[in-house]
Amino acid sequence: MLIDTKGKIAFKGHPANRPNLAEDITKLLAGEEITGEGCAPAAPKEGGEAAQAMPEGFKAASDDDIAKVNEFMSGFKETGKKIQEECKDQAKLMPRAFCVMVC
After folding, report:
1. Distance CA 22, CA 39 (A)
2. How far are the Cα atoms of 3, 38, 41, 43, 56 from residue 17, in angstroms, in the given order?
3. Chain segment 63-88, per-residue pLDDT in tens
4. Which residue has the higher pLDDT, 45 or 21?
5. How far is the C-alpha of 28 from the C-alpha of 10, rounded, in Å?
6. CA separation (Å) from 85 to 18, 80, 88?
7. CA distances from 80 to 1, 14, 15, 91 (A)
8. pLDDT level of residue 91 (50, 70, 90 thresholds)
9. What DSSP state is assigned to residue 35?
């Protein structure tokens, strides 16, 4: 998933479905929208309902919430290094030279 700077899911799908993922990320960081397959429809410009309503019982994340999550996620850098080292021998037998970890 790619999420824009406002916390809206901008794209759901496999990254290989995006012709230029680096450009998409640059646009999202600049506050721009991306379009194409797997992208959420743009929000209405004035009035009207939001393009993606929050599910019942959920609330938008505050800046403080986001900071706490980012701080927590930074701990995964060391965890990832440990997992890579532990799996090095097994990974040699895999047909791909990468591993995707999702939290």
Report:
1. 15
2. 16, 8, 17, 22, 30
3. 888 888 888 888 878 887 888 788 87
4. 21
5. 8
6. 31, 9, 5
7. 20, 21, 21, 14
8. confident
9. -
